[in-house]
Amino acid sequence: MPADLTTKSIIITGAATGIGRSTAIMAAECGAQAVTIFDVDDTAAQDTANVINTAIGDTVAKCWHVDVADRASVEGSVAAAVEWMGSVDVLLHFAGILHGAYAPIESFEEATWDRVIDINLKGTFLIAKAVVTHMNDQPNGGVIITTASGAGVTGGSSSYAYGASKGAVHGFTMVMQRHIDMAKIRVQDIAPGRVRTPLVLENLRQQFEKTGDREHYEAEVADLTDPDDVAKIATFMASDEAKVMRGPVFTR
Ligand SMILES: NC(=O)c1ccc[n+]([C@@H]2O[C@H](COP(=O)([O-])OP(=O)(O)OC[C@H]3O[C@@H](n4cnc5c(N)ncnc54)[C@H](O)[C@@H]3O)[C@@H](O)[C@H]2O)c1
User: For 50-67, what is each residue's pLDDT tens digit?
Assistant: First the structure.
């Protein structure tokens, strides 16, 4: 196993599909004591929980319907999850959307801009705020991993709003590192490259629709990173073995 997560109570957002799903399953395989899944896709989130509980043979995973952009939903669900798990030692925050890809700025919809910023950026602020409040009261603090991207951090993006939101998530995480007592709560962002998930597959499909270049499309799909390879890094970052790690972590 990539990491030892025994005794860890974990909240993981966006674990219905993609990187979050792989990481939730791997966290349970790494011995996590409890895995709480927050997502808006109830059916797929429940499937992730079922995979975990069937493999472990116990109720290690539980789902909550949480829209991370909704403060009341986030605060209430974090409190309920902490009550169920007894603590929150790790937040792995993957929930995010990529909308507005390939739209020119002249016709970029304000509603699309607002939705992406609300979920990706405000959602990160809301969940971090709610979790820090609980971690501050715990003798052993905790670990918070947010998800940025190369988009808006080291390069551009197919979506103005997505690139802007991910650059801001990275900035927000750096500000948290500055202000939070890092001896107690370790805060880092992970910036995945292009990973084989529904988010990226849909983005490549939209690109193919525009260009019609099948050869390029197939080469791009074949080159995507396996989500399990990112999950290995995320579970390690969540573990005590990574306690002296600092700063953002980039993957291909
Ligand atoms: N796949 C990549 O190559 C890549 C690269 C860089 C960054 N990322 C980031 O990694 C994270 C995971 O992406 P993924 O590729 O696994 O995508 P994905 O679409 O497979 O997973 C995103 C998850 O977030 C959930 N979600 C969406 N809106 C939500 C909301 N309002 N509240 C709660 N949950 C919500 C979805 O239901 C889904 O389960 C995202 O933040 C994404 O921006 C992905």
Answer: 999 999 988 999 999 999
